[in-house]
Amino acid sequence: MTGHVVEVQAHVAASVPGFVLVGLPDTSLHESRDRVRAAVASSGVPWPQRKITVNLSPASLPKTGTGFDLAIAVAILAGAGVVRAEVREVVHLAEVGLDGRLHPVRGVLPAVAAAVRAGLPDVVVASADVEEASLVPGARVRGAATLAGTLRLHGVDVEDEPTDPFRRPAVSVRHQPSGDLADVVGQPEARRAIEVAAAGGHHLLMVGPPGAGKTMLASRLPGVLPDLDDEAAVEVTSVHSVAGTFDPGHGLLRRPPFEDPHHTATPASVVGGGAGVPRPGAASRAHRGVLFMDEAPEFSPRVLQTLRQPLEQGELVIHRARGASRFPARFQLVLAANPCPCGRRVGRGLDCTCRPLDVQRYIGRLSGPLLDRVDLQVDVLPVRRATASPGESTAVVRARVQEARAAARARLAGTPWRTNVEVPGPALRSRWPLGSRAAAVDRAVERGTLSLRGADRATRIAWTLADLAGREAPGRDEIGEALALRTRGSGA
């Protein structure tokens, strides 16, 4: 996700004709020699019959992908005297076809953003990538449909035969879930948990029988979250650009994303992976949004355990033989689970047909270390009246969430944290101590109801409750409610 400026150097020598590409290119980049040679010939420009050496600097940085094609072609023609030397201050990002057409590439937005930060605002991309590249503030973007069109942008008088520009292929865009929080019948405790989760950025576990409304509640959480600010919008859009799931026609992604992988998903599809350069998975695509895992105990234990790193650090590190890829993954995790395999173990559980060992194994699939990182853990009980009066709408709850987040931002001003869930435990205890009001938390730790990590998370919940109530600091009521939300009612 962090772009690096690569200088493409071309040396054209009077020697036996040949083409050498150096600078740690991968297989797809090695093949650019044939693509560039054919594209130059198709554009009506003579290919230099000399010894051509192209170096990708810095040579110690591994290079991958086809986005270097256009820069290599322009550098070679500049070395041959066809293009003026001023092109060294222009960034070129596109794949070239054998017929000279320019193809779009993934990850244009973070690449252009890196170029602007490096003081290189002039960028040439394929016509299909102009919309996406233009989203970067400060970038001076020009588009070209062909290599010949690119040369004309640099003042070369070359014939450009009419060629249909390459069209960006259809992308799979993740739409926001529809519906209003007022659609949820009953469930005041679960609705309260949704509001608290949105206000503080907390993770949430909902346990209840089928049909109680867990999935509906989770799908309403993104609507309660406030819009992304400019910095977060660029981060989220960059992730989706690298993943190839971004439609530039809609501009920057301003709403928090929502990802709900199926319980048969593999670890690579959730945390990212793939051959060559890893691609972002559902966890990274949910950055600054919601990752919902319905029927959480049905997920593979390997998938669930891989979430422990992003829950703690807010990023995913995927290691490969040639290096490591880092993707942001500061999402809100929402888990939904039945109380037992049959789902009817509610109250006294008289309708449940599961054996105690089956119930223990089922819930045990959600490991203790994972659940210890989930802040809010609530029971979602069956609704007994289908005609219950509707609750508050999404707009009303979102207004309270925005006020609570504004209060948290004012308190956290001058720190690297945005929401209560991001504040480390040591900073929480040293900078905002609760004093004697934390006695209930200490007692829960002594009884073994809470771990030390759980105590920090309960304290964060208490601060979120205080922000929602408009109080400067949590009181005993907020701490008691925080313990109830943290321990499914057992710590109240």
Features of the shown structure:
single chain, five-stranded parallel β-sheet, three-stranded mixed β-sheet, 14% strand, 20 helices, alpha/beta, 492 residues, elongated, 15 strands
Q: Could you walk me through the main structural features you see in this protein, from its secondary elements to its overall organization?
A:
Helix 7 runs parallel beside helix 16 (394-411), helix 18 packs antiparallel against helix 19 (452-469) and helix 19 (452-469) packs across helix 20. The chain is built from 20 helices and 15 strands. The model has no long low-confidence stretch (mean pLDDT 89). It has 492 residues and is of the alpha/beta class. The protein is 37% helix and 14% strand. It has a 5-stranded parallel β-sheet with strand order 10-11-14-9-15. The protein has a 3-stranded mixed β-sheet with strand order 1-3-2. A 3-stranded parallel β-sheet has the order 4-7-8, with helices on both faces. It has helices at residues 27-30, 32-42, 69-79, 108-117, 130-133, 147-153, 188-200, 214-224, 230-243, 267-271, 282-285, 301-306, 308-313, 356-364, 368-371, 394-411, 425-431, 439-447, 452-469, 476-486; strands at 7-13, 18-22, 51-57, 91-93, 95-96, 102-103, 122-126, 140-144, 204-207, 258-259, 290-293, 315-320, 323-328, 332-337, 376-379. The two termini are 43 Å apart. The relative contact order is 0.10. Strand 12 and strand 13 (323-328) form a beta hairpin.
Describe the secondary structure blueprint for this structure:
Layout: E1 7-13, E2 18-22, H1 27-30, H2 32-42, E3 51-57, H3 69-79, E4 91-93, E5 95-96, E6 102-103, H4 108-117, E7 122-126, H5 130-133, E8 140-144, H6 147-153, H7 188-200, E9 204-207, H8 214-224, H9 230-243, E10 258-259, H10 267-271, H11 282-285, E11 290-293, H12 301-306, H13 308-313, E12 315-320, E13 323-328, E14 332-337, H14 356-364, H15 368-371, E15 376-379, H16 394-411, H17 425-431, H18 439-447, H19 452-469, H20 476-486
Helix pairs in contact: 2-3, 7-8, 7-16, 16-19, 18-19, 19-20
